[in-house]
Design a protein that fits this description.
With about 240 residues, the protein is of the alpha+beta class. The protein has one domain: Sandwich (Thaumatin). It is built from four helices and 13 strands. Bound molecules: 2-acetamido-2-deoxy-beta-D-glucopyranose.
């Protein structure tokens, strides 16, 4: 027993140093057009930061032990004067890889913390920065799926939140925090606690369409999911 825990400890330590794969993310594009998924790491390790994914294609990413970060998708991307740029979810890197830059809101996010407290993975869908794509995260085997199945862009996104595509269409729906930058929507200053930051007219609009997603910063009760660590995940855009 002693020897086994010593071995386990050594392996875990080596994994932290050298980055063993902790989870495999399979990313699927179920949208009827090409998207460019992207990732931003907040803790631990290297993972592909951006790539092209044709309609109906899948890609796999290896996330190291203890990885924490977000995944989102960009659309309507092209090169202009040698710089790669997307109408939705752009990260400003000028390349397909985001290289540590986050997506410009409005953007729907999938957030992961692998190997967190209690040796569990924590995952959620966040619309705290707004919405650009319907999406889902499905653990392989048993644990609950989180899904935001509705294309909020054409389900009555309030005009004051809508992000236009320049041709009369809507490519994203901003959160009230992003649109108005006010403390009561952003849960900052005197609204910086779960007790004082309440749902708003706007956050309730998002919650109605995607009850399993974070609609504002302290929306944890119905939006944070856990699964024993060691499993793999299917992330689908346009599920
Ligand atoms: C939001 O407002 C705060 C002050 O209330 C300001 O410091 C900050 O720069 C603003 N952010 C944006 C993105 O405009």
């Amino acid at each position: 027993m002693m020897r086994f825990s010593y071995l386990l400890c050594t392996v875990t330590l080596l994994c932290y140093v050298y980055g063993c794969a902790s989870a495999i993310f399979t990313i699927k594009n179920n949208c009827p057009y090409t998207i460019w998924p992207a990732t931003l790491t907040s803790r631990r390790g290297s993972i592909l930061t951006g790539f092209e994914l044709e309609s109906q294609a899948t890609a796999t990413l290896n996330a190291p032990v203890g990885w924490s970060g977000r995944i989102w998708a960009r659309s309507a991307c092209s090169y202009s004067e040698g710089r790669f740029k997307c109408l939705a979810g752009d990260c400003g890197s000028g390349q397909v890889a985001c290289n540590g830059a986050g997506g410009a809101p409005p953007v729907s996010l999938i957030e992961f913390t692998l190997n967190g407290d209690g040796n569990k993975d924590y995952y959620d869908i966040s619309l705290v920065d707004g919405f650009n794509f319907p999406l889902s995260v499905a653990p392989r085997g048993g644990c609950p799926t989180a899904v935001c199945p509705v294309n909020i862009n054409n389900r009555g996104c309030p005009p004051e939140l809508a992000e236009g595509d320049g041709r009369g269409g809507i490519i994203g729906c901003k959160s009230a925090c992003i649109a108005f930058n006010q403390t009561q929507y952003c849960c900052t200053e005197q609204f910086g606690t779960p007790k004082t930051c309440k749902p708003s007219f706007y956050s309730e609009f998002f919650k109605r369409h995607c009850p399993q997603a974070y609609s504002y910063a302290y929306d944890d009760k119905s939006s944070l999911f856990t699964c024993p660590s060691g499993g793999n995940y299917l992330v689908t855009f346009c599920p």
